[in-house]
Amino acid sequence: MIEIATSPTTTTITVTGDLDLMEREQFPEIAARVTGLRRQLLVIDMCRVSFMDSTGAAFLISLADAGRKRGGATALRGCSDRDLFVLEVCGALELFRVDEGHACPPLVAPGLV
After folding, report:
1. Cα–Cα distance between 27 and 29 in angstroms, integer?
2. Start-to-end CA span in the chain (Å)
3. How many domains, in total, are found in the chain?
4. pLDDT (0 to 100) of residue 61
5. Could you point out which of 19, 62, 98, 104 has its C-alpha 20 to 30 Å from the C-alpha of 90?
6. Domain of 75?
7. ∠ CA 41-46-48 to the nearest 5 degrees?
8. Mean per-residue pLDDT for 27-49?
9. Phi and psi for 9 in degrees, rounded to 5?
């Protein structure tokens, strides 16, 4: 699942679950919505991503590239080492600011609260 939230200067995309080939049908619509919002900063919250393949990486790269062409920036928050490696192998890690200071909220199992 991908959710979009905005503030006057920032768009935040929160990804939950897999960011992969199976989710690709929603990528064009989300990219169009994000691009249409025209915020200077795009934050991609990856705290709840369980798996990302090259299709998911290509989606993130396209978002970052579109923002850069408009003079904006894209930040990754809560990105796993594995996902950072995928972006690095794609030669695209330099398109992103990596928020290394972010601490993801802990997962709470249902019924344990």
Report:
1. 6
2. 23
3. 1
4. 94
5. 104
6. 2-99
7. 145
8. 90
9. -120, -10
Q: Does the structure show a pLDDT above 80 at 5?
A: yes
Position 108 confidence tier, pLDDT thresholds 50, 70, 90: low
Residue 28 buriedness (CB in 10 A; 0-12 / 13-18 / 19+): exposed
> Which amino acid, 69?
K
Please check the confidence at residue 112 and state whether its pLDDT lies above 70. Answer: no
> Is residue 41 within 8 Å of 72, Cβ to Cβ?
yes
Asked, for residue 104, whether it belongs to a domain, the answer is no
Query: Could you tell me whether strands 41-52 and 73-77 are parallel, antiparallel, or unpaired per DSSP bridges?
Result: parallel
Report how far residue 8's alpha carbon sits from residue 97's, in angstroms, rounded to the nearest whole number: 20
At 92, which CATH number?
Answer: 3.30.750.24
pLDDT at 111: 62
Cα(55)–Cα(2) distance, rounded to whole angstroms? 15
Interval 95-109 mean pLDDT: 78
